[in-house]
Amino acid sequence: PQPPYMNKIKSRTSLQTAYQIYLNEPRSSNSKQSSIDAFNQPYAQSNCNISNEYQYIGLRILTNVLELELESVQLLRTVAYKLVEFGLYNLAENIFRYIKNVRSDEPQSFRDLALLLQESNSETKNLIEISGLFKKVIFGEWEKRYSEIEVTTLLELNCFVFQFHQQRQILNSIDNRLHKT
After folding, report:
1. The whole model's pTM is what?
2. According to the lineage, what is the superkingdom (predicted)?
């Protein structure tokens, strides 16, 4: 469902007018998806090289979503995934690290951070940290509702090892029966 104000935002040629329409809309916990949708519009325009101002406004809208429910890990993940989608890895990393700290009882928290660090094109990738996060999921004791996440994570670890050709450095600390050679 598209909120009525999205048509108003899309029809404006002025960024300031569109942003003012967004600001004038009432905020409620039901408007989370609407705010994320509102982020997509200016950000998509920024990717067309119209203006960096569009990107800035889009980020402000997206981070406003977090103010609705800062304690909601699901909402934090949604915002972090959106940041990853647009290549804003440093911002997403901060959120994923926070989630890992507050939800260390969920293997997805470790997996999300490992996948982000793997995907980011950072020259200073910490290969040991990434493999450690994967191993935490693979060898951790998790509730039954997380059954078989270690299988998926093991496949991701194998892809990671193969992709970065760092088998000796990473694999020395992993049981040889768990990886393909």
Report:
1. 0.66
2. Eukaryota
Q: How confident is the model at residue 29 (pLDDT cuts 50, 70, 90)?
A: very low
Q: Tokens standing for 170?
A: 């990473």
- C-beta atoms surrounding 165 within 10 Å: 9
Q: What tens digit of pLDDT does each residue of 32-75 get?
A: 555 555 555 544 544 444 456 777 777 877 777 777 777 789 98
Bigger pLDDT: 118 vs 178: 118
What's the rounded Cα separation, in Å, for the pair 8 and 3? 10
Q: What is the dihedral of CA 11, 59, 64, 17, to 10 degrees?
A: -30
Alpha carbon 137 to chain centroid, angstroms? 18
Angle at 43 between CA 38 and CA 45, to 5 degrees: 110
